[in-house]
Amino acid sequence: MKNYVLILSFLLLGFYSCNKEDDAFAPPITAENTFSCKIDGELFVPKDHGGFIPLYGYLIEILEDNSWIITLSNGKNTLYLFIKKINNTGNYEVFASDGDQDFLYNEKTGMEFTDNGNNIEYISLNNSENIEILSYTNGQKLILKFDKIVLGSTTNNASIILTDGKLNINKETLNKDQ
C-alpha cells in the first residue's frame, strides 16, 4: 500500500510541476527586450533568441528613415510589425499590409501574423487601431503598446484580434547575454 501512495504522490507532483507554455506570463513593459500580446485571448511571447530570420526570438531592422521592422517568433507563430518613420512619441495608425513580410516599400505602418501550424497568414487592414509609441531613441530603443488590432486572413474570411500588446526593445543590449 505504501508503494501505491508513493507512486501516486510522485505522479501528482509531476503533473503539477510541469510547465505549460500557456502558463507563461506577460513581462512588464518596463522589462527591456521583451514583447507580449494576446492573440484571440492566448498569450504570445517570443522565445529567447534563436537565430537569423528567427526560428524563434527577436529580429530588429531599422531603416535609414527610422522605420522599424520587428519580427517576433515563438517557434510556432511569427508576428511582423512595421512602424513607418518614427519621429516622435504618440499614436501611429495601423494600415492595410500587402502581406509580403518585408515592408521595404511600404509607406504606412502595418502588421502581419503567420500561424505556421495552420499555414494561415493574417494582415492588418485599413481602419485598424493605433500603435502608441511611448518612448524611442533613433536607431536604438523603442517602447510601444497597443490595445486592440484586428488582422484578417489572406486566404479566407477569418480574423484574429491582438490585444494588450507591449514592446520594449534596446538594440544595443538585445541578445548580448544569450
UniProtKB/TrEMBL annotation:
<feature type="signal peptide">
    <location>
        <begin position="1"/>
        <end position="20"/>
    </location>
</feature>
<keyword id="KW-0732">Signal</keyword>
<protein>
    <submittedName>
        <fullName>Uncharacterized protein</fullName>
    </submittedName>
</protein>
